[in-house]
Amino acid sequence: MDWAGLAELLRDAAPSMLKGTGYTVLFALASMVGGLLLGFPTALMRLSRWRLARAPAELYVSAMRGTPLLVQLYVIYYWLPSIGIDFPPVVAGVLALSLNAGAFLSESIRGAVLGVSQGQWRASFSLGLGYWSTLYYVVLPQALRVAVPSMSNTLISLIKDTSLVSVVTISELMLATKEAVAGSANPLPLYMTAAVIYWCLSLLFEALQRYLERRLNRAHR
Description:
This protein is mainly α and 221 residues long. It has helices at 3-47, 51-66, 69-79, 89-115, 118-126, 131-161, 173-182, 188-220. It comes from Massilia mucilaginosa.
């Protein structure tokens, strides 16, 4: 294919791919929020002394981390309706991504909390602070600084994981690319363009990660 033909191919595919990119960003952001909302309480449940609190959290984390995200999408979108639980494609996609990310984020948060010295807990208790006050005012600010890199890696991976929601007919970037490829005799340039877009989005979130790390380290110092 000559350069003129390549330019025409990309120009024709640009509107649908740009629209798909917008949906990809929206799905990733919604799943990030959902993952964080699930990850924090799950981490606290896994840190609990009570077995009744730890057991369901451990089961959830094990199931989400031990099974492919694609299978989780199929279960939520295709199997749950057979037992009367039906989700629209967008909700099913965001739910699956959030559940998957929440499991990994919970482990990052739990590990960071466990990494805070026990002396911090004892010093806070000696000052009259209770468990939750110590956790909120003393431990979590320190743990968050430690957890940001691993949490950011999980969140950045959501950008690429959104490509899987095309299996539930959501027109994000990958599905938009497949639809453009269907009418082309040369699919490689379109797939390469999609890969570059995913890469640029990942670089954007990596820059946000570095910014957060600098802010948290400055506050710590």
